[in-house]
Amino acid sequence: MSVEDVDEQAQDKPKASKALGFQPSLKGRALRLLSQREHSRQELEQKLKPYEEIPGELAQALDFLQAKDFINDQRVVESVVNRRASKMGAARIQQELRSKGLDDHVMAETLNGLRATETERARDVWRKKFGQPPQDAKERAQQMRYLLSRGFASDTVRRIISQPTEHSD
């Protein structure tokens, strides 16, 4: 094989890899996911595990991204709260955060803040959906189930349904 043949083969490799469906690195895939929204480390592991070719490669890539602060649990908490707080109660948000593999100590302060505003947020959700007190027991049960399914505390739901026009608690 001559030098020219080797040069030709080297030039063909990038084209060949694109033709075969070039796959980005695990780090590249993780960065693409992180550019769309905040992800916890556990979420990234679940999504990227099928693409790991060498054992330990994924953990190494995620360690690098975490060291560079691309993966940050506090930002994940803030992102979820910003998206969900206007529609969901603290229990539902806590459930979502746990499903993302976040520790209780990371979300404790934020959840305490959510619980402090839960009555006001529940009243807003109730007002948007129903707007008027229940007329009978069936409507009352429907309104209560709706708010409970959104993760609002049962005592808060009872307070909202029994006194829907009260503005502060």
From TrEMBL:
User: According to the UniProt record, where is the region Disordered?
Assistant: 1-21
Compartment(s) of residence:
Cytoplasm
Q: Which residues form the RecX third three-helical domain?
A: 118-161
- GO biological process, alphabetically ordered: regulation of DNA repair
Q: Which Gene Ontology cellular component annotation is one that this UniProt entry carries?
A: cytoplasm
Q: Boundaries of each RecX second three-helical domain copy?
A: 72-111
Q: Which Gene3D superfamilies does its entry note?
A: Winged helix-like DNA-binding domain superfamily/Winged helix DNA-binding domain
Domain RecX first three-helical, by residue range, is: 28-62
Keywords of the record, alphabetical order, are:
Cytoplasm
| Main subcellular location of this protein, as a coarse class | cytoplasm
Name the HAMAP family on file: RecX
Q: Which PANTHER family match?
A: REGULATORY PROTEIN RECX FAMILY PROTEIN (PTHR33602)
Main role? Answer: Modulates RecA activity.
**Which family would the database say this protein is a member of?**
Belongs to the RecX family.
Name of the protein? Regulatory protein RecX
Organism of origin: Limnohabitans planktonicus II-D5
